[in-house]
Design goal:
The protein has 5 helices and 2 strands; from the N terminus they run H-H-H-E-E-H-H. By secondary structure, it is of the alpha+beta class. The chain has one domain (10-104). The termini are far apart. A two-stranded antiparallel ribbon has the order 1-2.
Amino acid sequence: MAKVEFVVDHAGLAKLLRGPEVHGLIMDRARGGAQFAQRIAPRQTGEYAAHIHAEDGGIGGWKRDRPVGLIVASAPHSAAVEWGNQHQPHPYHVLARTIDIVEAG
């Protein structure tokens, strides 16, 4: 039986991770996550759902070596919707539930 040796090309892998193909995949996932979050968002006024969107987070990660896609809720009351407060006693955890779906694929 022939012996096979695998050597990781770290420089090539880093280049791939920062390349346009991976960036496109990351942003597709972020946009899909934003759409999911909009669908499950509470609709008292519609403002919260209307202010959920995907953003390009640039290069990040633990080693700052890969593209980052963000799912952003920018309505003024987004924190109250996510975690609750004295005026919003029921937290909806929209973004937390969205990340679970995005990470699961």
